[in-house]
């Protein structure tokens, strides 16, 4: 049977992708950040997942205001990097896993999570930057990836609790797939940041540290927080952190934090990263 | 429209909620059109003429022409959409963030390197007025 073995949380700042694509990873500004992900790339090479489920948000690339799905699951065979106004990132096309993705879609809907099934979707920096951070610059990504796009642009995003419960339903969906696959789930976005208005540049390191601690110790505390509290404490774009709770919900109750990295700033954002393994 | 919302007291922040989304639909869809190179060229050639393709209010056209980034948000713009206009102008996210906070890019970059804008005094309008 398929099973989720670990979770990865990471920010997905677009400037990180630009730094990689333009060969700036050794610049003094960026070097400490990329150094922080070296152990993660090693972990990824050693863990060799068969599939990655990647929870992220689209930033007005695949979805405009014409359609705003709250949860959109990518069921296609492949997903092209989106042109976000500067041409697509020079990264490999993302290969999907249609069998598992469709199985998840069916399982989730029957489990009363009415997700949107997507058969054509370009993927923006929200999805490709985490892959670059965890996998470097390979010719092809090391495994198939199932994108799960979450609306956090139009208020209200799904609640922290809904995200956490969706994670639990994903865990169940994967476990009922009749193939022997080792799956890693990524929750991306955050940490504290605000890109808009006079409060832009907000960083709340104390909130971020508490969030990182509670991700393994007391996720229920994070799940109880309202959207308004996230907006207030983590910034208007820090609300992306609810996507980390989908990842956390998909893991076991008993988990082990195997790696953590935190750095301020990358462009406008506090970068947070954690690798969490199921103990079983 | 005048109902009190639970996030109204967060200072310096416009939450892109239902009211803002309805108000800003055409403004944001204009920004979205700039994802295509042909449209960017047409916009740059004659901004006002290009804007007339979208049924926006005069006030919305004005804030776009003036590159009033906070004004765009106030009139229904969403930052991920207005960022496409910034990209068309060759501006980075950090450059428009600096403009929205009323600081120079240098000052803004320095603030970020020093750990960003503190949450202390910035949680609520009441708190920031006290501070």
Brief descriptors of the model:
heterodimer; A: 280 residues; alpha/beta; Protocatechuate 4,5-dioxygenase, Chain B; eight-stranded mixed sheet; two-stranded antiparallel ribbon; 10 helices; 10 strands; B: 131 residues; mainly alpha; Protocatechuate 4,5-dioxygenase, Chain A; 2 domains; 59% helix; globular
Summarize the structure in words.
The complex is a heterodimer of chains A (280) and B (131). Chain A has 280 residues and is an alpha/beta fold. Chain A has one domain: 3-Layer(aba) Sandwich (Protocatechuate 4,5-dioxygenase, Chain B), CATH 3.40.830. Helices cover 35% and strands 21% of the residues of chain A. Chain A has an 8-stranded mixed beta sheet, with helices on both faces. In chain A, α1 packs across α5, α4 packs across α6 and α6 runs parallel beside α10. Chain A is globular. The model of chain A has no long low-confidence stretch (mean pLDDT 97). Chain B folds into 2 domains: 77 residues, Dioxygenase LigAB, LigA subunit (Protocatechuate 4,5-dioxygenase, Chain A, Orthogonal Bundle); 40 residues. Chain B is globular. In chain B, 59% of the residues lie in helices and 0% in strands. Chain B contains 9 helices and no strands. Chain B is mainly alpha-helical and 131 residues long. In chain B, α7 crosses α8. The mean pLDDT of chain B is 95. At the A-B interface, α7 and α9 of A face α1, α6, α7 and α8 of B.
